[in-house]
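WARN retry 2 of 3 for item q-0093 after timeout on previous attempt; input resubmitted unchanged.
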Amino acid sequence: MNRKHEKYERLIARCKSLPPTPTAVAYPCDESSLTAAAEAARAGLIAPILFGPRARIEATAKQHGIDISKFEMVDVPDSEASAAAAVALVREGKAEALMKGSLHTDELMGAVVKRDTGLRTPRRISHCFIMDVPTHADVLIITDAAVNIVPTLKDKIDIVQNAIDLAHDLGVPEVRVAILSAMETVNPDVPSTLEAAALCKMADRKQITGALLDGPLALDNAISPEAAQIKKIDSPVAGRANVLVAPDLEAGNMLAKSLTFLAGADAAGIVLGARVPIILTSRADSVLTRLASCAVAALLAKARRDRGGKELW
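OK item q-0093 returned
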């Protein structure tokens, strides 16, 4: 526990040489969301463009002593209009990331997924937690714990590929993906084990690329070399996974929150599969976790610029 946060600190340090990422912030109308934007701007991670009712944002800033004097602001009347206007700015190419304010996640994502005016791509939109677990040597990416409730096998192809691409853009040298279930053997009565086996065969056939995949794997033999050895699982992933793919949202969410509240982990969050990274912060997040989420978005935006604005699909 003495080295808590070191992985996030390294992520943030990697952004020191980067220009702040222009970021559309939708409806930052409470202390938590406005502070998150201001702190990330102060750290040089983002250049916020605030969307919402000007009077309310300014009143919130004054009440809580948050300096927003240097931020561009677009005066729109409510949360729905804020989400739509923020997404429109991204579509115009004037922002390279989108950040959730105090509106509900469903409201922001509703604007993102609109067919004609949103930020859809050929990929399924998914969420990743980038977990800093003090007792674990490497960052752990957990997906999907926030967007796809009961993903199908077809959905999981994109969920896995999104996480792999994220890991590469964050500079992970070897991406090792564990497809989680309650067991490490294929059981026809447990659908998640069948989907895990199918995903691994897809990786063998280059339908999923850029990583080593193995599954089904139970959590213990995905991250513990000792557990994998006891179970006699011979795999380059078992015991060494750095990407954990949950069978459904409930399992992923409980895994991430168990690590947070029982193991002292932090959980930076990012939404992938849209035209730009989408930063989701929670009122319960620490300042460092919020900064880490913005640092992830900044690194993804840089990777996209390095590809000439092109996506990987």
